[in-house]
Design brief:
CATH class: Mainly Beta
CATH topology: Rubrerythrin, domain 2
Helix content: under 10%
Strand content: over 45%
Strand order of the largest sheet: 2-1-4-3
Length: 50
């Protein structure tokens, strides 16, 4: 399978809020998305963690 399961962590509170998949062949770097953090109650940058 060409997709990899990853976890996204908030850069403000460092909690792991989301899990998603990404393409192993195309995604070489770490994924960064702006998502809603329920603990901070605002949209923050979430980075891929291992």
């Amino acid at each position: 399978m060409a997709r990899e399961q990853i976890t996204l962590a908030c850069t403000v509170c460092d909690r792991r809020n989301y899990s998603t998949t990404k393409n192993k062949k195309k995604g070489s770097g770490r994924l960064e998305l702006k998502k809603y953090c329920p603990f901070d109650r605002k949209h923050t940058v979430h980075k891929e963690t291992r």
